[in-house]
Specification:
Helix content: under 10%
Strand order of the largest sheet: 1-7-11-10-8-9
Number of helices: 2
Largest sheet: 6 strands, antiparallel
Order of helices and strands: EEEEEEEEEEHEH
Radius of gyration: 16 Å
Number of domains: 2
Strand content: 35-45%
Structural class: mainly beta
């Protein structure tokens, strides 16, 4: 058993073979994020960080993009700089840390929440009330030589649920 190093999710592959696409979007002036952090688009068209446990399928549970670089400094009002971000597709698969525990085989195919803390997005297999991820496979099942079923902050392969990718903007 080991404790994996926490980090933001990384896009591993797209099951439909779609090429990675980027776009430029203005960000909210108070926004800060780390590379690979999940981002959402508000009704005002600005980028915001995703958050923990918003209402399922609306606003705060939306996941539309992922950060390509860090944005460490907030500005006042609307940021007038266009931020280049990665567009998340329906068939994208991400590798993500579990928030605080293991990822057993029984999680496969189930829907779970996201936790965002200190600009770090992670999977929460202890909660399903605001599910945004479907677990495709624990990483230890694919790469047992580097990962163990008893790892904490374990890694898993997940897809973002369509209701979060296409959530109503608030």
């Amino acid at each position: 058993m080991a404790v994996q190093n926490p980090r933001n999710p990384s896009r591993v592959y797209n099951t439909a073979g779609v090429i990675v696409q980027n776009t430029g979007v203005l960000s909210d002036g108070d926004a800060t994020w780390k590379a690979s952090q999940f981002l959402r688009s508000g009704a005002d068209g600005l980028l915001y960080e995703t958050s923990t446990g918003g209402a399922s399928g609306v606003g705060a549970d939306a996941i539309n993009y992922y950060a390509l670089t860090d944005l460490d400094t907030a500005t006042t009002g609307v940021d007038t700089n266009v931020r280049t971000v990665g567009i998340i597709q329906d068939d994208d698969v991400f590798e993500i840390n579990e928030n605080n525990t293991t990822v057993p085989r029984t999680t496969i195919g189930n829907w779970y929440d996201m936790v965002v803390s200190a600009n770090l997005c992670s999977l929460n297999v202890d909660s399903t009330s605001h599910a945004v991820f479907e677990v495709m496979q624990p990483k230890w099942a694919r790469e047992a030589f580097q990962n163990d079923s008893a790892d904490t902050l374990a890694l898993a392969f997940v897809k973002i649920l369509g209701r979060s990718l296409h959530a109503s903007k608030v």
